[in-house]
Write a structure and sequence with these properties.
With 369 residues, this protein is of the alpha/beta class. 34% of the residues lie in helices and 26% in strands.
Length: 369
């Protein structure tokens, strides 16, 4: 029996999920990650019900649940912190997987990277691709060259694989918002995600462990600020006028709080996301803004569906076409609705108008991928 080979470019969530999934169907996998330390950026990550179900299919839900904070629903709050309603997080009939949750990004990275190594995938750090041809011939930045049956571009929003295979293709577009994030101690009353709507900015809280949470704040700005953003930008000023746990969090911020901020960018690559034996998944093909908290889930879903389809047939083009038929409509839903929610936030739309799009999107995403 001939062992099929795969090169995965990128060691983020999409790349790690692809490595685990392809190893399960017998592929020999090389994963290359340009960061020699394989680090992860960011404080916390929101886990939606679909994301948790994707982790279940990947075989890591138990490990994630031990380290994450899970629950049901989203509390909608006024600017003063008063809870005014609750948005339910729909789940498929018969599902026992929680509807929402959160986890620290380094913890999720540790879980997935350990599974990748345990799977037998060959991990190469401090390396990436120098060139790729549609027939799967890849030259690494180390000078090594090899032909693969399958090349998976999972190298994120600024994907080099995308640039090599689709020159002149889509580039990230600034959406008009900056997302601020900071990790903080979780007060006991924050038992599920919270959105603070109706004020000058949208703010959210997400529990990520029994004693920690992270806060995100979406600020509208007239033009894209430089990357990285200056550390002196005043998050405390943006939180003025907010009450409840946000007031306590605001008053506790200082130079050591580990505040991070980045401009939000997005695009949806037109189909196909493949050429020859090379295919893009995750943020390399459909990076969404965080309004639906679906980036990690969509990346894992992509990896699972890709492995299912390439495991059915030997011809990559046939498998990739089936993959696109399953994944493009769902990716379009997430990208377009996330951007639409951001547009409503920037326009100061009533909270009910914003939550209506969130609720409609969550219902659609509750369907099986």
């Amino acid at each position: 029996m001939t062992v099929r080979t795969a090169l995965i470019v990128g060691g983020g969530v999409a790349g790690m999920a692809a490595a685990i999934s392809l190893r399960r169907i017998g592929y020999e996998v090389d994963l290359v990650e340009r960061d020699p330390n394989w680090r992860v950026q960011g404080a916390g990550i929101t886990l939606t019900g679909p994301t948790l179900r994707a982790f279940q299919a990947l075989g890591v839900l138990d490990a994630v649940a031990r380290e994450a904070y899970t629950g049901e629903g989203i509390d909608i709050c006024a600017q003063d912190g008063t809870i005014v309603s609750r948005l339910e997080t729909p789940t498929p009939a018969g599902s026992v997987v929680p509807g929402s949750g959160g986890i620290m990004r380094p913890m999720l990275h540790n879980i997935l990277s350990q599974r990748v190594r345990a799977s037998g995938a060959h991990v190469r750090l401090g390396a990436s691709v120098e060139s790729i041809t549609p027939d799967g011939q890849a030259v690494l930045t180390t000078g090594e060259s090899r032909a693969y049956d399958l090349v998976v571009g999972a190298d994120g929003i600024f994907s080099k694989t995308r640039k090599l295979m689709f020159p002149g293709g889509p580039e990230p577009a600034f959406t008009g918002q900056v997302c601020w994030r900071v990790s903080a101690e979780r007060p006991p009353e924050v038992v599920r995600r919270r959105f603070f709507l109706g004020g000058p900015v949208k703010v959210g809280l997400c529990p990520v462990s029994p004693d920690r949470m992270y806060m995100f704040l979406l600020q509208s700005v007239p033009e894209k600020p430089p990357r990285p953003l200056s550390p002196h930008l005043d998050l405390q000023a943006l939180l003025q006028g907010y009450g409840g746990p946000l007031a306590r969090l605001r008053d506790g911020l200082d130079a050591d709080s580990g505040i991070a901020a980045r401009p939000l960018e997005s695009f949806l690559a037109p189909p196909p996301w493949h050429r020859g034996r090379v295919i893009l998944i995750g943020d390399a093909a459909h990076p969404a803004t965080p309004q639906l908290a679906s980036g990690a889930g969509m990346a894992v879903e992509d990896a699972l569906v890709l492995a299912e389809e390439v495991g059915r047939v030997t011809e990559p083009e046939t498998a990739f076409s089936a993959f696109m038929a399953r994944r493009y409509p769902r990716a379009r839903l997430v990208v377009e609705n996330s951007v639409e929610i951001g547009r409503l936030e920037q326009a100061g739309a009533p909270p009910a108008a914003q939550t209506e799009v969130v609720e409609r999107s969550l219902r659609a995403l509750a369907e099986s991928f």
